[in-house]
Specification:
This protein has about 450 residues and is α/β, with parallel strands linked by helices. Helices cover about 45% and strands about 5% of the residues. It contains 19 helices and 6 strands.
């Protein structure tokens, strides 16, 4: 008679601590668990180099924590997971919920192919999509009342890692190459706990890319190296406006996931249907200039170059570069969202698409369309000494202080382009197009 065993299928939970699905797998398998990660070609091929590198490094860190026993197999999960479950005679397969459009479809196909139960426990969110409803039993469309309900609902405390696991092993494929010093559960915990010493400053400094003082926890949250429950438990011990502002951002992440789970088309289509009639320009040379950080607007170009070189962009700058693409260059937000998903190390479909819609004015709780960021004014306000611009746009390092934001007024710079559009004229055109769909 075979020993009782279970499969733990890791996805967006690349950690051993605070992982309820893993605890269920250990209990169901009487301590004997096969841990597997499936390299799905459909997702791998859509990921840019930054995401692939971090994922590979995170998988190596997880495998090390498992004594080298993480099994990695390439292929369609609907074939790989049932095959490995049958191979070891597993009584059950355990996962954390995936609320994304592709994830839900994929998990349904896996469940239909399995000969044993697919057990879903937990999710990547403090409060899973679909849990929070208003008094009429309907989902929230506006963030502020959602946030109040989110706080009132509350969340579970973090759970401990399993005390003893006998990790099973079967033949797998080679782990992909990739190295990142900040990848993996322990690095995420170390970085988060170091940041907690400075979280009180978050409310004052979170819009200042020149200070580079945000936590960058969006990256480990993307891969599940750290669960938001752990972060919320730590934040509960802090009493500051910064901690409260940070908690609000974790709620916004849950809100975006809730919106996408209920509206899967929102990945690439506006939640507000009238925006389907908006006149947009096809992406061409100006779109290429935006991607390459050569628009002639230093704050925009610094952000796009930071994205290209590091796979990360400060949140304030993400809003500015997104507004510039949609409202200065009049390109549909979906093209920018796809470029971000390809380029970002923390590329998360729900947060990415719904935040792009927020800037474009076409999502739930969206900023009004007529809120158009001035790319120069934003730079002067949030990078007042030009440090962020000079860090990422070397052609402008000879310009002191705020002069770096307006090189055309300060002698220009060899090799740096003139502005590709006149912001005032582009703003008037954006408002004209908006008036046409109202």
């Amino acid at each position: 008679m075979r020993d009782v065993t279970a499969v733990m299928w890791f996805r967006r939970d690349l950690r051993l601590g605070d992982n309820p699905a893993l605890l269920d797998a250990v209990a169901a398998g009487d301590g004997q668990v096969l841990g597997i990660f499936v390299l799905d070609p459909l997702l791998w091929e859509r990921s840019g180099a930054a995401r692939r590198t971090h994922l590979a490094a995170s998988l190596r860190s997880l495998s090390k924590a498992m004594g080298g026993n993480l099994v990695v197999r390439r292929g369609d999960p609907a074939q790989v997971i049932p095959a490995v479950a049958e191979e070891i005679g597993a009584r059950s397969v355990h996962i954390g919920a995936d609320h994304g459009p592709y994830g839900q479809t994929r998990d349904g196909e896996v469940e239909g192919s399995l000969k044993c139960p697919l057990v879903v426990t937990g999710s990547p969110y403090a409060i899973a999509p679909g849990r929070i409803m208003n008094q009429q039993g309907r989902p929230y469309q506006v963030f502020t009342p959602y946030f109040r309900a989110w706080l009132e609902h509350g969340w579970r405390q973090p759970c401990e890692p399993p005390e003893q696991v006998k990790w099973l092993s079967v033949k797998g494929d080679e782990l992909p190459d990739g190295a990142a010093d900040d990848a993996g559960e322990q690095a995420a915990l170390d970085n988060w706990r170091a940041y907690l010493d400075d979280v009180a400053r978050y409310d004052d400094e979170r819009n200042r890319p020149d200070l580079d003082s945000t936590s960058r926890m969006s990256i480990p949250l993307k891969y599940g190296e750290l669960h938001p429950r752990t972060m919320l438990a730590d934040l509960a011990r802090k009493r500051s406006a910064g901690a409260e502002a940070y908690r609000r951002q974790l709620a916004w992440r849950d809100f975006c996931a809730d919106l996408l789970a209920r509206n899967p088309q929102a990945a690439w289509k506006p939640l507000r249907p009238e925006f389907e009639r908006m006149q947009y320009d096809e992406p061409g040379a100006l779109f290429d200039a935006w991607k390459e950080g050569r628009t002639g607007y230093p704050f925009v170009d610094a952000g796009m170059r930071q994205l290209a070189e590091s796979g990360f962009v400060h949140n304030r700058v993400r809003m500015v570069v997104a507004s510039f693409l949609v409202k200065d260059l009049h390109v549909h937000w979906k093209y920018g969202a796809r470029w971000f998903m390809q380029s970002l190390r923390d590329g998360d479909l729900a947060s990415n698409s719904l935040n792009w819609q927020w800037v474009a004015g076409c999502g739930a709780d969206a900023a009004p369309y007529f809120r158009i960021f001035n790319p120069v004014g934003q730079g002067l306000k949030f990078d007042p000494d030009g440090e962020y611009v000079r860090r990422w746009v070397p052609e402008l390092r000879h310009l002191d202080g705020k002069n770096a934001h307006e090189p055309w007024k300060n002698g220009g710079a060899d090799g740096y382009p003139e502005p590709v559009v006149d912001h005032a004229e582009a703003r008037r055109e954006a408002l004209r197009r908006y008036d046409a769909i109202r």
